[in-house]
Structure to design on (433 residues):
């Protein structure tokens, strides 16, 4: 599952940082400039209020000790880390390097685009082996992320061939409907989570001499697969190509994956891989969601593609091209639900079914507010008609929202939920275990 990295290269000089910027981006300035994220960061956006998930290898104690995550820890924004492998700690700190690209903050050294986001981490990869169990681990990690209300998750892992005795995929399986992690990733998107995945490092001269194509879950119908370019914006030799087995264009978008400056157990270095292009895109997604929390995953994908460098002529190497964070944020701010002016819509409230069902600690009810902001009240009642302590009340702007309820203190059983607005009442059942 861990996408094999291209060879590590030496760190660039910190003198690459540009004079005159409000923030000192250190040696990460070039990778931010390539995706035009600096204007947005200079404005003050940083992914604040957005929940960012990292599904990867372990991080060890680096989050607590590395300078690029010191602010995240001090401000209480590194919320949780869960291990889904059941395996001993291995030496890989790939997951930490991925996090540093997306959300690190060490002025003069490295700044990630989502340096103000709230972070959740799931260890699903055990690097000494490549087994099908790791696919199940990733699915469990996605389910946990979804239960935490994560808005955007980065997956710098990919699955194609496995160890002897395991079940491997063929390139014909890259149809968006076969891979275990692919199916789970698409389901997560359907439930409101933006899923960003590395395309893979299997590129080469021709499909006959290597795997060549993207891997799972990057082949997902709704997954944002990310290819890699170098600092000059040219596709790297290792970046996995499309199309999918059913003929769709992949990757979807691209970012710098050659010579990416990142945090490591030794401090800082530069490294190569779509693993490090992907978190740059995930970090920019956090900026979009900060600018407009009402965006759906489909709208996020559309905005990133239509503002990317080759949006008019997508291909199987860079997809729709290198993302443009500033243009994407501007488009996000202009967006009203599906591009329709709110004044032309009839006010209404659309509810999604509660999930997960049954619920054990948290339950989420998705809400889409159309036409005008609404005051929304959510109340739970037990089977005797008694009001439960969990609930929600507040004003919701136009867009998609998640009403999250903590049900850990509720007795197991069937509950009635009741959602009230000035337009009417909706109700349904949910089960607590």
């Amino acid at each position: 599952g861990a996408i094999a990295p291209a060879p590590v290269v030496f760190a660039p000089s910190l003198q690459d940082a540009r004079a005159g910027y409000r923030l000192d981006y250190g040696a990460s300035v070039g990778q931010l400039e390539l995706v035009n994220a600096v204007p947005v960061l200079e404005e003050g956006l940083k992914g604040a209020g957005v929940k960012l998930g990292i599904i990867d290898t372990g991080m060890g104690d680096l989050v607590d000790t590395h300078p690029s995550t010191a602010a995240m820890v001090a401000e209480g924004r590194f919320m949780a880390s869960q291990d889904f492998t059941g395996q001993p700690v291995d030496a890989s700190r790939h997951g930490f390097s991925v996090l540093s690209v997306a959300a690190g903050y060490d002025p003069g050294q490295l700044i990630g685009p989502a340096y103000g986001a709230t972070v959740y981490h799931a260890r699903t990869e055990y690097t000494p082996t490549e087994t099908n169990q790791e696919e199940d681990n990733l699915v469990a990690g996605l389910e946990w992320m979804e239960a935490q209300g994560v808005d955007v998750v980065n997956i710098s892992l990919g699955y194609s061939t496995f160890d002897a005795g395991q079940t491997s995929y063929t390139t014909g399986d890259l149809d968006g409907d076969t891979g275990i992690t692919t199916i789970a990733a698409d389901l997560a998107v359907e439930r409101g989570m933006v899923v960003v995945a590395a395309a893979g490092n299997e590129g080469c001269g021709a499909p006959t001499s290597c795997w060549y194509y993207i891997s799972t879950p990057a082949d997902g119908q709704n997954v944002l697969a990310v290819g890699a370019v170098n600092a000059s914006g040219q596709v790297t030799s290792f970046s996995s190509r499309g199309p999918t087995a059913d003929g769709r264009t992949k990757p979807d978008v691209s970012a710098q994956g050659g010579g990416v400056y990142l945090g490591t157990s030794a401090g800082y270095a530069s490294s190569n891989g779509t693993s490090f292009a992907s978190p740059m895109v995930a970090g920019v997604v956090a900026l979009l969601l900060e600018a407009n929390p009402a965006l759906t995953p489909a709208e996020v994908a559309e905005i990133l593609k239509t503002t990317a460098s080759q949006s008019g002529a997508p291909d199987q190497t860079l997809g729709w091209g290198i993302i443009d964070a500033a243009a994407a944020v501007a488009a996000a701010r202009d967006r009203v639900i599906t591009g329709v002016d709110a004044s032309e819509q009839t006010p209404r409230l659309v509810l999604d079914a509660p999930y997960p069902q049954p619920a054990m600690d948290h339950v989420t009810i998705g809400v889409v507010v159309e036409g005008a902001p609404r005051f929304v009240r959510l109340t739970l009642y037990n089977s005797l008609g008694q009001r439960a302590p969990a609930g929600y009340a507040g004003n919701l702007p136009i867009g998609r929202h998640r009403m999250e309820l903590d049900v850990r203190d509720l007795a197991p059983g069937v509950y009635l939920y009741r959602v009230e607005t000035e337009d009417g009442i909706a109700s349904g059942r949910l089960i607590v275990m």
